Amino acid sequence: MRRRLLLILPALQQLDDYRFRLIKYSRFPPLSLLTIAGLTSPDQWDIVVRDEHIESSEVEGDVDLVGIQTYISSSGRAYELADRWRERGAKVVLGGLHPTSLPHEAAQHADAVCLGPAETAWGRILDDFEHGCLRKFYRGRCEGSAALAPIPRRDLMNPRGYLIRHTMVTSRGCPHACDFCYKSSFWGRHYYEPRPIAEVERELATVDDHLVFFLDDNLLANRRHARALFRVLRGSGIVWQAAGSLDVARDPRYLEEAYEAGCRSLFVGFESLSPEAMRGNNKLVNAAADYAAACRRFHDAGIMINGSFVFGFDSDGPDVFDRTVQFAVDNKILTATFHVLTPLPGTRAFARLEEEGRILHRDWAYYDTDHAVFRPRGMTPEQLEAGHKRAGREFVTYRSIFRRSLGLPGGLKRIAYNVAWVKIDPLWVAVIRAGLMPFATRIFERVLRLDTNARNQACTSVPAPAGLCLPEAEHAADSPVHHLAGISSTHP
Fold first, then answer.
1. What integer is the mean pLDDT of 301-305?
2. pLDDT value at position 54?
3. According to the model, what pLDDT value does residue 462 have?
């Protein structure tokens, strides 16, 4: 008898600005859930995937098994859904960043909790479910998980709900071990063997719109793997975005290779202008970097920058907000995401602040990088939140947009990116709610053809908008860096 599986991405808590969250989380489909679906036999299971950011998770009829991907700031909603489905007779599995960090909390609302990457645990979960002997905890093995990742079941996603439909993960983990990053609790301090390049090539062959966002934590860290990927991408017509650390800018030729393979934008974690703050949080790659020189090299290669900045480190005072915005404007960072330092459970930052008695509360809905959930040293929590909001507003003024856009190749396109992404939110909300994202994607494909590379103005590729880069780790509910791992080790 065929069973029914429901996979849910719960909506984030609607604390301050629902429209912003709707726009932010309608950019990409829930890759983790689509990957889990790809690991599940369609001969034995009817599979339904629901993303609450664009649609209701409610389905008619009985459901046998429910899998819920859980971020820290959506955990309240995840637990609510889990309790409701258990009352209806379904078995519930919770997985993702938050259950991995706090499994016993999650276990109060679930029949089973998956810790870490699900690729190596999902088969056992399904088998135990079939035999009526689900265990309370399953731990996914990090080693070898990349090789098990199937092509996601993109046929199960809402085809009209997302701006970029093709997101991919080709590697797992990161060679850096920053204190505030979720990676230490989910992956440990390792960079694992990437997916076989033949499997990546097979998945890339399914891309039908020439736009890809690689959601690897640090795609360019393993140069051997990245260059193999470049060879596959070069000449494919695919343009792509990804995340990379500042050390990649030390080699201009490496950046040029990425550009020639279709890279048009990188999410870069600058985090803080203070080397002291970076050393104190074990982000040594930043402490040794010349930020301005790195920006010049990215621009020279034709690669646009989506910068990530974090406020609230111990060395930060009330002047940090203006100084950071000024740096971003002076160095023509095209788009940026500003975050309040958020100590996630399971990270060294959380352990340190908890030991010092500086954690203010454990209301996880506010652990969204927009609110101060700890007591900073150099200012009050209220000053931290107010300065963070002010920095975000000042960065997107028209004066700032023009200063950051002009003086580099493709200035008009850069202005259009910023205006479209931060000045016409009501239009984006209408597009999303009307299911017109495919139309919006076609407009991007037609309008954004001009190359931004100073060395080659005539380009036939379609550069994807830098403004679409994930805020993490954007993508940022749980972390100020690339962080959206879900029930599977891949990212939504």
1. 92
2. 84
3. 34
396-402's contacts with Cβ under 8 Å and 24+ in sequence apart are 396/422, 396/423, 400/325, 400/329
Helix axes 223-233, 197-204, angle to 10 degrees: 30
Q: How far apart are CA 266 and CA 333, in angstroms?
A: 11
Residue 264 parent element (H or E): strand 263-271
CA distance 139 to 147: 17
pLDDT number for residue 479: 31
- In angstroms, the CA 229 to CA 227 distance is 5
Q: What domains sit in the chain, N to C, each tagged with a CATH number?
A: 3-146 (3.40.50.280), 148-468 (3.20.20.70)
Q: Please list, in sequence order, all residues whose beta carbon lies within 8 angstroms of the beta carbon of residue 434, skipping any fewer than 6 positions away.
A: none
Beta strand residue intervals within 394-486, DSSP E? none
Greatest extent of the chain over all pairs of C-alpha atoms, in Å: 65
| Amino acid at the residue 481 | V
Rounded Cα–Cα distance for residues 201 and 407 (Å): 37
Q: Do the Cβ atoms of 213 and 242 come closer than 8 Å? A: yes
Choose among 97, 260, 164: nearest CA to 470: 164
Q: Are strands 172-173 and 191-192 parallel, antiparallel or unpaired?
A: antiparallel
Beta strands in 160-238 (DSSP E): 167-168, 172-173, 191-192, 211-214
Q: How far apart are CA 450 and CA 457, in angstroms?
A: 7
Angle at 170 between CA 169 and CA 173, to 5 degrees: 85
Signed CA dihedral, 320, 323, 325, 328: sign only: negative
Q: Which of 225-234, 248-257, 373-382, 482-491 has the lowest mean pLDDT?
A: 482-491
The pLDDT of 281-291, averaged and rounded, is 92
Q: Average model confidence (pLDDT) for the chain?
A: 85
Average pLDDT estimate for 168-172: 91
H or E element that contains 336? strand 335-340
Taking each continuous run of H as one helix and of E as one strand, the counts in the chain are: 21, 14
Tell me the two tokens of residue 11: 């909506």
